[in-house]
Design brief:
It comes from Ovis aries (Sheep). The protein is mainly beta. The chain is built from 13 helices and 43 strands. The two termini are 56 Å apart.
């Protein structure tokens, strides 16, 4: 009788599998493969080798704490003669001496996660069990049968494999790109992403069901959407009360609006939720008081955030805002194999009552008076992930919007999406998930009411604020911005747009805009740099044959990106302004650095408002514009020729643009493939006005190819200045 098979070891073929599965960066010490695609293992036996006529080999693959064949988290399969497509299978590809080379296949709809693979070897009536390997299974956008299949190698490279990119901030008329290090293949990040799934409330409630549902990118996307962030009121440590994420709970924009639950300049009385049932990665805060944590504007990558979360026992990292939440979600989803990109929507609406209307109530000077639960944010970031939607009608596959900073409950949980971008464009608000909310973010209408002395309300005309502009993401394979507004909206005024608004019952948008013949917009001059004085202009056009006389009120106030106003930094009141027939006038307003220097937030934004009042016609004409002040440039020089595994030096410098000295100056540097983790270097104090601060940072490129070095500069008077440099590393 033949002796038992004895397994000596199992070779995971990391190099071959890593190359074939585009997981080489993850396969240095472990096996990481993508579902629906074969992978290879080599078994080494002691004594004799496998004999097909004598031995029976049965394999078992399991994932999760409670695996079962019924839920798809456990698979038993015999060694077979041929691969069976769409199923767990193993076949012999080579046999020599005491080695047996096997090819394994996995279903393209298998749950992703950490697997244990074992072998039951039977010889006659005897048998032995061996643990072959532990491996991680990911979604596979290279496999046509996978729900995340993407039929473009360039897009797969960008949305799965690229570890750096840009997030767009600033304003619709001055879009600013912020470099970001996603770092999804950095050491330990995959384990952290899987840990994130394992601490989500659905897993804690029913681990077996949660692991089974990880076969669906729709499900995984919703879990990640609900796990990235939590938002708390600024009043501190009351763990039982938290803002609905994004802080859009009764946000006003007058600093006098304070209540029992202070959140910066806002009162939070409605959107409180108990978030203690999850262990989200980031804590949201918007009041510019970040002393017990890290300012959201400081971050330059996801890796440091995710590592801090793990090292602190899954305690939320302080602090994040929408672009940080979106960037971390992008890292997690790309790491798990779902094609994902960060998207920025300018003039983004939060419509709480689902009437697709944002109403502002102002006094006779144009200042917002009432406490606002609905607002227009300067910009808002979410992510899009590519997947099929078998749960929806045909045509809704492709990009799906997921908001990792959700503001409303979706099926009992604070998460948002995925919702097909196509459904938003078509105005199909019955589509899962959360279509009405996302539709409002890009399509809500804005109405301004002026409350007159007698208490009556008069509707003002404001054509300067259009919701859903310049929807932006990074271009594929280039450091350029791609405008994807056309994916969300039909051309303004087109028949298709009217059909979409009719389908969405968006009645406000179907009403023709009121025209008066007098128009006003805010224009800007040159040199809007932080530290400088500059001019803005109210440009008024009279297109009528009559003369118009009125009062012009101009006001500039600092503003956060979420629309919360700060102190005034410039005003002008012209009691009598005459407009000749068919004439134009530009009225300047000087904004001084000494007025905004102490109240400008890290968003670098100033809101300029013009209100033209014509008493004779009882007419109010309103124009607003958010102005972004440019930070100084960070210059980055690479000293030496970048070669793999050879030390390299980066020289980073910045010139102080302010009229006062800077102290506490630091450069923080990070970049996947160029440096392990982050490095921070402190500069000698002080850096006088107009002086240059220059420091050097040591790098060690580990991988050949194109990488980004991302830099953040901080000081007492100048914060969150970003820069980057592309570095092409050659072989040693």
């Amino acid at each position: 009788m033949a002796e038992d098979l004895v397994l000596e070891r199992c070779d995971l073929e990391l190099e071959v599998n890593g190359c074939d599965h585009h997981t080489a960066d993850l396969c240095r010490e472990r096996l990481v493969v993508r579902r629906g695609q074969p992978f290879w293992l080599t078994l080494h036996f002691e004594g004799r080798n496998y004999e097909a006529s004598v031995d029976s080999l049965t394999f078992c693959a399991m994932t999760g704490p409670d695996p079962s064949e019924e839920t798809g988290t456990k698979a038993l399969f015999r060694l077979s003669d041929a691969m069976e497509e769409g199923a767990w299978a193993a076949v012999v590809v080579d046999q020599q001496d005491s080695t047996l080379s096997l090819q394994f296949s996995t279903p393209a709809n298998a749950p992703i996660g950490h697997y244990r693979l074992s072998l039951e070897a039977s010889t006659g009536y005897q048998g032995s069990s061996f643990m072959l390997a532990q491996f991680t299974l990911l979604f596979n956008s290279w496999c046509p049968a996978d729900a995340v299949y993407l039929n473009s190698d360039e897009e797969r490279q960008e949305y799965i494999l690229t570890q750096q990119g840009f997030i767009y901030q600033g304003s619709a008329k001055f879009i600013k790109s912020i470099p970001w290090n996603f770092g999804q293949f950095e050491d330990g990040i995959l384990d952290i992403c899987l840990m994130l799934l394992d601490v989500n409330p659905k897993f804690l409630k029913n681990a077996g069901r949660d692991c089974s549902r990880r076969s669906s990118p729709v499900y995984v996307g919703r879990v990640v959407s609900g796990m990235v962030s939590e938002c708390r009121p600024a009043s501190g440590d009351n763990g039982d009360q938290a803002l609905g994420c994004h802080g859009w709970g009764n946000l006003g924009d007058d600093e006098s609006q304070l209540g029992d639950l202070v959140f910066g300049q806002t009162r939070c009385t409605q959107m409180r939720v108990n978030c203690n049932d999850d262990q989200g990665v980031l804590l949201g805060r918007w009041d510019n008081n970040y002393g017990d944590g890290i300012s959201p504007m400081f971050w330059i990558g996801s890796v440091d955030i995710l590592r801090r979360w793990k090292e602190d026992g899954c305690q939320r990292v302080k602090y994040g805002q929408c672009w940080v939440f979106a960037a971390v979600a992008c890292t997690v989803l790309r790491c798990l194999g779902i094609p994902t990109r960060v998207v920025t929507n300018y003039n983004s609406a939060h419509d709480q009552n689902s009437n697709l209307l944002i109403e502002y109530f102002r006094n006779e000077y144009g200042e917002i008076q009432s406490d606002k639960s609905e607002m227009i944010w300067n910009f808002h970031c979410w992510v899009e992930s590519w997947m099929t939607r078998p749960d929806l009608q045909p045509g809704y596959e492709g990009w799906q919007a997921l908001d990792p900073t959700p503001q409303e409950k979706s099926e009992g949980t604070y998460c948002c999406g995925p919702v097909p971008v196509r459904a938003i464009k078509e105005g199909d608000l019955s589509t899962k998930y959360d279509a009405p909310f996302v539709f409002a973010e890009v399509n809500a209408d804005v109405v301004d009411w002026i409350r007159q002395d007698d208490g009556s309300l008069h509707k003002s005309i404001n054509h300067s604020l259009v919701v859903g502009l310049k929807i932006s993401t990074k271009s594929v394979g280039r450091d350029d911005r791609e405008d994807i507004t056309h994916n969300y909206k039909y051309p303004e005024g087109s028949p298709e747009e009217r059909e979409a608004f009719t389908r969405a019952n968006h009645l406000n948008k179907l009403v023709d805009k009121e025209e008066t013949g007098v128009a006003m917009r805010i224009r800007v001059g040159e040199g809007m740099n932080r530290g400088c004085d500059f001019d803005v202009f109210a440009h008024i056009t009279n297109s009528t044959p009559e003369e118009h006389t009125g009062r012009l009120l101009l006001c500039a106030r600092t503003v956060s990106y979420n629309g919360i106003l700060g102190p005034e930094c410039g005003t002008k009141d012209l009691l009598s302004l005459s407009l000749e027939p068919y004439s134009e006038k530009s009225i300047p307003l000087r904004i001084l650095y000494e007025k905004y220097c102490d109240c400008l937030t890290e968003s670098n934004l100033i809101k300029v408002r013009g209100l033209l009042i014509e008493p004779a016609a009882n007419s109010y004409l309103l124009a607003e514009r958010d102005i972004y002040l440019e930070n100084p440039e960070i210059k980055i020089r690479i000293l030496g020729e970048p070669k793999q595994n050879r030390k390299l030096v980066a020289e980073v410098s910045l010139r102080n643009p302010l009229t006062e000295a800077l102290s506490g100056c630091t450069f923080t540097v990070e970049g996947s493939g160029l440096i392990e983790g982050q490095k921070t270097v402190d500069a000698p104090d002080p850096v006088e006005a107009g002086e240059e601060v220059k420091m050097r940072v040591d790098l060690l490129p580990l991988y050949v190819g194109r990488h980004k070095l991302v830099v953040n500069f901080e000081s007492d008077r100048l914060k969150a200045v970003k820069g980057f440099r592309n570095v092409i590393v050659g072989p040693a």
